[in-house]
Amino acid sequence: MYTIKEASEILGVAQSTLRRWEKEERIKSYKTKGGHRRTESRIYTK
Predict the structure, then answer these.
(1) Domain spans of the chain?
(2) How far apart are CA 29 and CA 7, in angstroms?
(3) Dihedral of CA 40/25/30/37: which sign?
(4) Which of 6, 18, 29, 46 could bridge to 2 as Cys pair (CB 3.0-4.6 Å)?
(5) How does pLDDT run across 20-44, given as a tens digit for each residue?
(6) What confidence score (pLDDT) does residue 44 get?
(7) Distance set, CA 32 to CA 17, 35, 46 (Å)
(8) pLDDT (mean) for 6-29
(9) Cβ(37)–Cβ(44) under 8 Å?
(10) Strand 37-39 relative to strand 29-31: parallel, antiparallel, unpaired?
(11) Considering the entire predicted model, what is its pTM?
């Protein structure tokens, strides 16, 4: 699992892009108990 910041750096896109993709259901993310987003690592290894 990656933070939204880590994922955006890996993919070379803005954090807002990842949030939009999440809303569009293009990527799957989860929120921690503290309300922070975590994205699946498998989307970066394909």
Answers:
(1) 2-44
(2) 11
(3) positive
(4) 6
(5) 998 998 888 888 999 888 987 776 6
(6) 61
(7) 20, 5, 24
(8) 91
(9) no
(10) antiparallel
(11) 0.74
CA dihedral 46, 42, 18, 26 (to 10 degrees): 70
Nearest to 38 by CA among 25, 27, 24: 27
Measure the CA–CA gap between 18 and 38, rounded to whole angstroms.
Answer: 11
Only one residue has tokens 């939204």, namely 4
| CA–CA separation, 18 and 27 (whole Å) | 8
Total count of residues recorded for the chain: 46
Rounded CA-CA distance 10/33 in Å is: 24
**If DSSP codes are grouped into helix, strand and coil, which group holds residue 29?**
strand
Which pLDDT score, from 0 to 100, does residue 15 have?
93
